[in-house]
């Protein structure tokens, strides 16, 4: 039996068409959701993602400003850019593409973003609100994963979810959102002893490691749902995930492809957060 493909591309299209309707409703009130993407340096992968975000914004009738600066851009200058965006009423969302050059303190930069415009969900206020189950901008990749599970009627309640990776932007919040949906959650990371011992007990396996074809079928419990967050290049330079897709196809019950799985959902959730921010501006006076 071959696993069911979890189609992130199709699911993200569906979500984006719903977003487009709401963008149109806002337009009738003279509001255009605006996202500012700040990109420092010339990491080619970052450029691809950022272009993707801009294209999607425009397709949905949203405004997207790309602010590009050289690798040598100073921390103080960046903080000033953010302060200006915080005060710009036409900007509803601010995304600073990570990673930042080594001379810039990432935490300081995230802290400078107005939590009301924190569409990445990386600000400690957003993280804290998410942790205690209050309203917050949810981090896009973990939120996208939850939407995929929902779309495929996979209820995490009572399941054992194993998350490989504990970064602040993917692994850690992914485990939290699964916990909120009543999964029993195990985190694994580079210091985990005998990884397969854990992953073979996973009903839902989330891999956010960043190593090409890291997981073969010996890591997978028969019938498991496999969510592959990894974005890697294989030996031929082709985009691939952490999971050896072909190898696990007969073991897993569901699997996300790379590309076409989690990635497109991340972008869709970013658009949704930006829209939500613009909609909130209507009901709140500041
Ligand atoms: N599809 C999408 O939308 C997105 C995809 N990505 C991709 O997801 C991947 C992860 O991203 P990110 O979380 O930012 O990456 P990080 O490098 O920040 O985190 C990687 C995690 O994997 C763990 N790890 C590394 N080696 C092993 C190992 N041998 N066994 C078990 N765990 C290990 C690390 O452990 P430790 O903490 O101990 O170092 C760390 O927690 C990347 O490929 C990235 O490109 C990222 C964001 C969005
Ligand atoms: N502040 C910040 N926020 C982020 O959300 C953020 C970031 N920094 N830094 C980098 C990571 C990575 N990330 C991806 C988003 C979309 C795809 C995506 O669309 N992937 C497509 C393929 C893209 C391609 O063809 O290259 C897919 O999987 O189908 C991938 C990766 C967001 N990130
Ligand atoms: Mg840095």
Automatic annotation (TrEMBL):
Residues 6-120 form the Tetrahydrofolate dehydrogenase/cyclohydrolase catalytic domain. SUPFAM superfamilies: Aminoacid dehydrogenase-like, N-terminal domain, NAD(P)-binding Rossmann-fold domains. Its EC number is 1.5.1.5, 3.5.4.9. Keywords: Amino-acid biosynthesis, Histidine biosynthesis, Hydrolase, Methionine biosynthesis, Multifunctional enzyme, NADP, One-carbon metabolism, Oxidoreductase, Purine biosynthesis. Coiled coil: none annotated. This is Bifunctional protein FolD. InterPro entries: Aminoacid_DH-like_N_sf (IPR046346), NAD(P)-bd_dom_sf (IPR036291), THF_DH/CycHdrlase (IPR000672), THF_DH/CycHdrlase_cat_dom (IPR020630), THF_DH/CycHdrlase_CS (IPR020867), THF_DH/CycHdrlase_NAD-bd_dom (IPR020631). Belongs to the tetrahydrofolate dehydrogenase/cyclohydrolase family.
């Amino acid at each position: 039996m071959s696993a069911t493909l979890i189609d992130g591309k199709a699911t993200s299209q569906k979500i984006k068409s719903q977003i487009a309707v709401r963008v149109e409703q806002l337009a009738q009130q003279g509001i255009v959701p605006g996202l500012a993407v700040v990109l420092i340096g010339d990491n080619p992968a970052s450029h691809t993602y950022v272009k993707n975000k801009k294209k999607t914004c425009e397709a949905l009738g949203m405004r997207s400003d790309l602010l590009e600066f050289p690798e040598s851009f100073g921390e103080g200058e960046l903080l000033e850019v953010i302060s200006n965006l915080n005060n710009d009423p036409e900007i509803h969302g601010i995304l600073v593409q990570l990673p930042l050059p080594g001379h810039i303190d990432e935490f300081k930069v995230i802290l400078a973003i107005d939590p009301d415009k924190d569409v990445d969900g990386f600000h400690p206020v957003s993280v804290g609100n998410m942790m205690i189950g209050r309203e917050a901008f949810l981090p896009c990749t973990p939120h996208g994963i939850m939407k995929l599970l929902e779309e495929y009627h996979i209820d995490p309640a009572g399941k054992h979810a194993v998350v490989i990776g504990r970064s602040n932007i993917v692994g850690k919040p992914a485990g939290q959102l699964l916990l909120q949906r009543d999964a029993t959650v195990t985190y694994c990371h580079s210091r985990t002893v005998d990884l397969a011992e854990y992953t073979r007990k996973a009903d839902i396996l989330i891999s956010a490691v960043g190593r090409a074809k890291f997981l073969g079928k010996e890591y997978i419990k028969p019938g498991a749902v496999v969510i592959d967050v990894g974005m890697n290049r294989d030996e031929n330079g082709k985009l691939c995930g952490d999971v050896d897709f072909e190898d696990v196809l007969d073991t897993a019950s569901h699997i996300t492809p790379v590309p076409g799985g989690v990635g497109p959902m991340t972008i869709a959730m970013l658009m949704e957060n930006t829209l939500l921010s613009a909609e909130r501006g209507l009901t709140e006076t500041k």
